[in-house]
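Predict the holo structure. Ligand: iron/sulfur cluster.
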Amino acid sequence: MDLTRRSFFKASALALAGSMAYELSSASEAFAMDADDSWKLVNTEEYTNICCYCSGGCGVICSVRDGELINIEGDPDHVINEGGLCPKGATMFQLIKVVDDKTGEIIPNPNRVYNPMVRRPYSTEWEEITWEEAIDEICRHVKDTRDQYFIEKDEDGKTVNRLEAIGHLGGSQQNSEEEYLILKFMRSLGLVAVDNQARV
Ligand code: SF4
């Protein structure tokens, strides 16, 4: 066969294209998802959220199936963590569910606390109370403490209107506007010791 330089390159290009097409089709077959496969995240809805543990504010994807959270993982599109999570954040799913030591099944975390708990003075036991009771009790304690310890004037008679008997530590995931309102509220009670976990 009389193979010219031009026909040689043409034949080589065709052979290369054919080989690449074969490789790609083999690869896509290898990676093809079987619709019936028990892929962990099949038939889930994704919701983005933020890790609750520290001020880093890493983004996470929460996968939900039939109204039930089944997986949490780092969000690759999040500007802060780009998909990564530290060991603490990576175990966030265990707030809800854990693997049973004996059966290997995923079960609700038996240590999760679903209601407010209170340990009364001198008691060694935790007592479960309702949210209404918890809010009422907290309000009562704040009012009583403020009534008892509010300082209107200092030793020199200067007006200070402050309360040193209560401190407030905010959570790390409140946004600036929420923190602004919290700070205003605490200052209105006279609190001096106000800080936020995001700062530390
Ligand atoms: S994943 Fe780790 S670093 Fe990121 S917010 Fe959560 S606790 Fe902080």
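Residues 117-199 form one domain. The chain is about 30% helix and 25% strand.
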